[in-house]
Each structure stands twice: as C-alpha cells, then as structure tokens.
User: What shape does this take?
Amino acid sequence: MATSVNGVGSISSAGIGSGLDVANILERLMAVEQRPLTLLKDQATSLNERLSNVGKMQGYFSALRDKANALTSPSLWSSTLATSADTSAVKVSTSAGAVAGSYAVNVARLAVGQTVTGSAMADSAATLGEGSLTIELGSWGAGDPAAGFTAKAGSAAVSIAIGAGETSLAAIRDKINAAGAGVTATLVTDASGTRLSLRSKETGAENAFRISVAETVDDGNSASGLSALAYDASAAASPMGRSTSAANAELTINGIAISSASNTLSNVVDGMTLNLLKPTSADVDVAVAEDTAAVKTAITDFVGAFNTLASFIRTQTAYNADSKTGGALQGDSATLSLQNQLRAVLNEASSASSTWSRLSDIGLSLKSDGTLETADTKLTNALGNLPELKKLLASDGSSSAESGFVRRFKRLADAALGSDGVFESRSAGIRASVSRNSKSQEAMTERLAQTEARLRAQYSALDTKMSTLSNLSTYMTQQIAQFNRSTG
Assistant: This one.
C-alpha cells in the first residue's frame, strides 16, 4: 500500500480513505500485464538452450571430421608394424615406404669405437707439461702395427693447446672434451692410480683416431710429459695403449653380408630401421606387416564419433509423449537437414571398391536408432584386404558414388563446419533472435513500469475522490441528524 505526505501534518495512504485494497488490486493487474514479458523470458531460455545445443552438435561434427581425417590419411593405410623374434639382440621399427616382408638377421659383430688409455699417475691433479695435442679421426690399416692411417673424409684434424695451469690430467680432460674433436675423455681411477682414457664418440672403423703431441719443452722421453698422451697404431710402440679397436658392425640380412659403421641401420631395407644390440648365434626373424590394428582402431574411433553425433541429434529432435515435451532442436530445419544428409551418405552405395559397395559388407550396419553397430568378424575379415577396404572408406572419387564412405562424411563435415556452413549461419540466426528478444524484454519492462505508474496514479486519484465523497456523506449524515433533532 502506497503512503504519501501531502503537506505539513497531512498524511495519506492509498486505500485509507476509500477502504479499497489498492496494493492487491495493482498486484493482480500487473500480473496480467506481465504475461507477455514472462513469455519473452521463456522464449529467451529456449533460444539460449537451442544455441547451446547447436554448439554441442558443432563440436560432435568437428570430432567426426577429425576421425574422418585420420581414417582417410594416406599415412594410416601405408603404416606397417615390425616385429623381432629376439628384441634383446635386434630391434626393428618402420617408417613410410616400408614393404611387408620377412627377413633373417644374423649379427656377427657390433660396431664399436676406438678406446685408448694412458699410464697411471698419482691422481687427477698430476701434471704432464705444456704443448699441444692434435687429434685426427680416420681408419687404421690392417696388421699390428697397422699398415697406415687414412683420414676420415670430411673430417679435419683438431689441435688443442695445453698452456700454463692446464697441464693436470683433469684440465687436459676438460680441454679435450671442449674441443669437439670426435672423442670423449674420461679419468679412470683404481688402486694403481688415475689414467686418462679417450674413446671415439661415434662407432665404426672410420671413427678411429690418432693423437700427435708437440711439447713446448721436449725432455727427449716419449713416455713422460705431454708426450705420454700420444697414440699411433702404425708405430711399433705407443705411449697410450689401445684397449678397443674401432670396427664396423658385421651382419647378414637374408644371407647378404652387410657392414655398417653404426649399430643403427636405416633403409638397408626400404622404410625399415634395425637397432643391433648384441651378436647373435643364429638368425633372428624380423617381420614387417601391414598395420591392420591401427586401421581397425581408426575405424572404431570413427564409428564412436558417428554414434555420439547420431545419438545427440536423435535426442534433441525427439518428442516425449509422456511429458509432452520435445527436444531443444525438435523441428529445427538445419538439424533435420544434417540428419538426413548423414543418412544419405550411408544409404548411397559406393563403386569405389570392386569387392564391397556398402558399409554393411564390412560389418558396419545402421541400427534403428540411427547409430552404427560393428560386426567384429566381418570387419576383421575385411582388414585382410586393406587395398579394397581403403577404397571403400577413403577413396576420393570425382562423384559421391565413386567416393569412399568416410571421404563423403569428411566432405559433409567440412561443408557444415565452414565459415559459410550451416552451423555458422544457424548460430548467427539464433544469436540474432536472442538479441531481438533482449531488446523486446527491455522495451516491455519499460512499458510495464509506465503502466504500473499510471495505474497507481489513477487508483490514488480514485482513493482521494472516494475519501472526499465519504467525508461529504458523513457531513450530510451529521447535518440531517442535527436537523431532525432540532425539529423534533
């Protein structure tokens, strides 16, 4: 009930003078007036739910396209799976271009690098002398002493200066490791003392090395000072001793002799990489086969994405007779069109394969609820003929009938998800409706405020008028009663 002050000492409240329940009357009248606004709010809720569901469907279509892209990728259909009968001796992997086949691998020797070690000294702080070390990579000739040294093609000798304060074993080790000479230096300590040991960074006969020394002050003794780090396999004697000679890996593949500077052999067989881990006493069977498991996984993933999308559309466009309510996208023309296009892709036979024409031929059948079910036995049998299965699913024909089924789905998804596709236009249309609804609500709210103000003013005026009439009636009643007493 509204109360107002009409001057000093004068207070009025709507309904006090007339006895009318003005507040209740106004509340009921405004409830009627607000019905259009309530309808607009309900409409806004429905529009926002529809927009959200269009967004979800767009996400499901995107997932379907991703799985279609994976299933139509050339790399999937050319992928291979390699196995080794003895992974402790020979590991195998494949890349693009690998051809299915079986191979017998027999490893006679692993590739190794050269290792040389100096004489024992007291500890890592023991000093040798100033001068320079020159390290050359290459291969030694046959025999002992070696027939000669052949420098590695493309490799240059590296000279390492050993100056004042750099003559300890530890300092020389660090200088060698920092020089990038193709060798690694370490210190080995045992009961007899500390030795400097050098090892080839890379394996293979061509990665052996020679060490030449030039002393700043030559003491004339090749076994002392910096000269103690010289190594030459072609000399009758050398200050540093060789514990391991650099050598290539020696093996046979299907009886063919192979020599390799590395224990990792790439493309000796197209697309196949062998990692040699140890010599073998017999042939190790290595096989390369088509990776049907990867293809099956890709098909299963695609079916899952399709079923998620189909189930969502079915739920959102359905009508519940019990609750008498429909899904958020029931009657939505764009959604129904996409649903029909999905079914059309499945219903049109494909001539891409000479073996199969429908998905049901390979075990993918359409159920009554619009989803696909998989017959595992049929699909497994189809995986035994990958070339024709690829055609049925991934072939990119000049027409829809000449294209694979998954390729069609990819095209449909690409079109729907494009910048001018159905999702962009449908979302834009719904957003425009939401915007119009919001403006209508604002206008309606303003009109309702004006209506309430007008009604309140009218009932306040009525209240005042009735109060005046009531007062007049009371006055007249009093006058008549007084008149009657005076004449009585």
In short: Residues 422-487 form the longest helix (66 residues).
